[in-house]
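seq:
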Amino acid sequence: MTFFNRRPRTSGGASRAAVNRTQAAAALESALQALRGPFIVADLETTGLSTSTCEILEFAAVRVEAAGTLAREYTQVVRTRSPVPSFITRLTGITQAEVDRHGVPVVQAFSSFLEFVEDLPVFFHNASFDRRFLGAAADLTGLPFANPTHCTLALARRAWPELPSHKLEILARHVGASDPTHRALADVRTTVAVALAASSRLAAA
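struct:
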């Protein structure tokens, strides 16, 4: 009599979970490699959450060298096509008067941003949000954004799973960084501190 060993069936959910774990591990390794520098940390302020009805209001970025030193900074307010909503002014402090006085068209701000980041990897806190708006800006201006991107929110979740929240203000207090203010450059500086602290924590794990 011949016996056949039946292989246990693998559910689709289990397969997807394994794929997700593999992708997450690869993304983590890629991010840690990028954090050896040089790299860019960037942030956008926007007039709302939807790329179909809202616009980028402010760009900011910092170049971080291999030693973790902040080398150069870029920040620019955008002259939006629509008025700045009052709730955005309350949140960010960016007024319509500032936009009128210091803002430049999005194509000019985006072009300068791309020139600043060069081809370096770019880190954002909650990168999917920023990527959506950068994609919309690329479609609007015809200027491609093709840099590899990484998410410090995902890094922080891996570095400090015990924290009840991984919002930037919570992480800032946890690592002893300055509080974010919802101005893009201030938030970038805080994100740099979080990224470097998460990198050190994960490297020691």
